[in-house]
Specification:
CATH class of the largest domain: Alpha Beta
CATH superfamily of the largest domain: Response regulator
Number of helices: 15
Structural class: alpha+beta
Distance between the termini: 43 Å
Number of strands: 28
CATH architecture of the largest domain: 3-Layer(aba) Sandwich
Number of domains: 4
Shape: globular
């Protein structure tokens, strides 16, 4: 029944078997990574900068659908290390010519981190292109390196060895060597005789410019994406796949046709004091002109710290004043003047400067029994770890709401940008920008007929190579009904690369009460009841980021946790 495609309740093991069968041929033709396949022959290579390039590819997986078994194919792209001579790669990485000068310690460390684990092939032995995996970079220059050549203690220099053994005269003796052996028996290779092996996917974190270039490469109009997918299916010739034939699998080269409809845009309710009290979005767009937030938040005290060197103090003051004016015009109770004038700070001083500035502000606000409601941070467009550092200090150490703005936003001085930032600030300080008219009139099915709470959950995993970092689980839940517009969120650190959310339901030992149920779900249910005065009679739970292989495991574990919490809560 299942293999004939007439049963949609597919055993996971059967799907995995068929998936393996259909992956066999592409795995031999292309470079497989996860559920995708990549090749330089599937489209143009695009440089991403710093020695990386993008390769086009396709995603493939078998899915059970109402039409039977379907093959899901989509276009994709990812970053590969360019197959360059190592010296050229290092020059791109450092954005500097290194062929006539030695490396600084900082440059050497940067190259070492980038090249560790990368495969190279040697070019000084003619057709014998032996391959090695880089384990490190020497601290000494090539001309200073020696090694024992026999048990008698005879020592040769790397320069001498390459000249005598291969007749190769090393030119760039001031550069370090690549280490391709272990620490006990190191093997030194001069950078100029090594070339990076083609087809190595780059799995580390991309910088902002590389991400932007990769997105430009993958962003397509639907008709162009359809054309590329159709061409990919024909190029792969699934009808001729010998492994598919062996299992009696036949795949149509036509796209599946699915009946669909365009849902009407919901009407949005704004504050009655605005010139426009509601709004019907057109083509998914609308703005805040003549409208006021349905519930404006309060920001009575705020300050601004400028980390962008190219933003002068006067421009920072003008930007903050215009932003404060927009927040006020949009319906917020927002003070037009900051507690302290905007201050310029070096990015590497973020923690010390923020804490010092916060204490200065509290020296003014403390005697008035007031708190600092908001910090506005002006950041460089390419800010590296600065954004995360600022959020950590503000949200964890100081306990204040923060709003970051990029330099390009500051220079535009655009009303639409001010309005967008004002909307973000309002939500962060507890306001509501808009609500659905259908929610107020109780016309949303399965949501407004009885008290309903809506959850959203996801787990963020550390980047490859960050082996000691925990995964972070985040759960949000609606805190108003019937509008379901305001949300509270909780985060929890858990085991490295653990997809199951461990803290949805917990039992802790109370010295007096004994076992007591707790966890993220319970906290959010209690918060919902305090906010609305109602116990939720229905739970809608959205879960993101679960792979096909883990779907049923996550479903059973987390659904069971929700049920346990719900029983205890009732």
């Amino acid at each position: 029944m299942f293999l004939a495609g007439r049963h949609t309740e597919a055993p996971q093991e059967a799907l995995q078997v068929l998936d393996i069968v259909l992956r066999e041929l592409p795995s031999a033709r292309y470079a497989p990574f996860g559920r995708s396949f990549f090749s330089p022959d599937l489209g143009r290579r695009q440089p991403l900068g710093d020695g990386l390039e993008s390769w086009r590819g396709f995603y493939q997986s078998i899915r059970p659908t109402q039409m039977g078994l379907s093959l899901n194919i989509d276009m994709s792209a990812t970053a590969f290390i360019e197959p360059l001579p190592v010296i050229d790669y290092a020059a791109q990485l450092l954005r500097s010519d290194i062929q006539s000068r030695p490396l600084s310690d900082a440059e050497r460390v940067k190259i070492k981190k980038a090249l560790r684990g990368v495969k190279v092939e040697v070019t000084h032995r003619g057709n014998m292109r032996r391959k090695y995996r880089i384990s490190g970079l020497t601290t000494q220059a090539t001309r200073e390196l020696t090694f024992p050549v026999d048990k008698g203690g005879t020592v040769k220099s790397v320069v001498q060895y390459f000249q005598e053994t291969y007749g190769f005269a090393i030119q760039h003796t001031y550069l370090p060597c690549l280490q391709v052996g272990n620490q006990q028996r190191p093997n030194y290779l001069p950078m100029e005789v090594c070339k990076i092996v083609e087809g190595q996917r780059y799995s580390k974190r991309l910088n902002q410019n590389q991400i932007r270039a990769l997105l430009d490469e993958t962003c397509q109009y639907p008709r162009d994406r359809e054309r590329d997918i159709t061409q990919m299916v024909k190029h792969n010739a699934y009808q001729e796949d010998p492994y598919a034939k062996e299992f009696g699998i036949k795949i149509s080269d036509r796209l599946a046709s699915v009946d669909a409809r365009i849902l009407p845009a919901p009407r949005l309710k704004y504050n009655e004091t605005g010139r426009e009290k509601d709004c019907l979005p057109r083509v998914g767009q609308w703005n805040m002109m003549n409208k006021k937030m349905v519930n404006g938040g309060k920001v009575r005290s705020w300050m601004c710290v400028n980390f962008a060197r190219n933003v002068p103090d006067k421009l920072a003051r003008d930007f903050c004043h215009q932003l404060a004016q927009m927040c006020q015009d949009s319906g917020m109770d927002f003070a037009l003047e900051p507690v302290l004038p905007p201050m310029s700070v070096r990015p590497d001083q973020v923690e010390r400067a923020l804490k010092a500035r916060y204490h200065e502000a509290m020296n003014i606000l403390g005697p008035q029994r007031r708190e600092l409601d908001l910090l506005i941070g002006i950041l460089p467009d390419n800010n590296g770890s600065l954004y995360g550092d600022l959020k950590r200090v503000c949200e964890i150490d100081l306990g204040i709401v923060s709003q970051c703005c990029c330099t390009k936003q500051v220079f535009k001085l655009n009303k639409q940008i001010y309005a967008n930032i004002a909307l973000k600030i309002n939500v962060k300080v507890g306001g509501r920008n808009t609500v659905l008219v259908d929610a107020l009139s109780r016309r949303i099915p399965l949501v407004t007929d009885r008290p309903t709470i809506i959850f959203g959950a996801d787990v963020t995993h550390p980047h490859p190579g960050e082996d000691s970092s925990p995964s972070i689980a985040a759960v949000v839940a609606s805190q108003d009904w019937p509008e379901v517009t305001r949300y509270a969120g909780l985060v929890s650190a858990q085991a490295h690369r653990q997809e199951l959310i461990e803290d949805l339901y917990k039992v802790r030992q109370d010295p007096q009460k004994g076992p007591v149920s707790s966890g993220m779900i319970r906290e959010l249910l209690i918060s919902f009841k305090k906010s609305t005065g109602e116990k939720p009679q229905r739970i809608i739970f959205y879960r993101d980021g679960v792979s096909e292989g883990q779907f049923y495991q996550v479903l059973l574990f987390e659904l069971n946790a929700i049920r346990k919490v719900n029983v205890c809560f009732i």
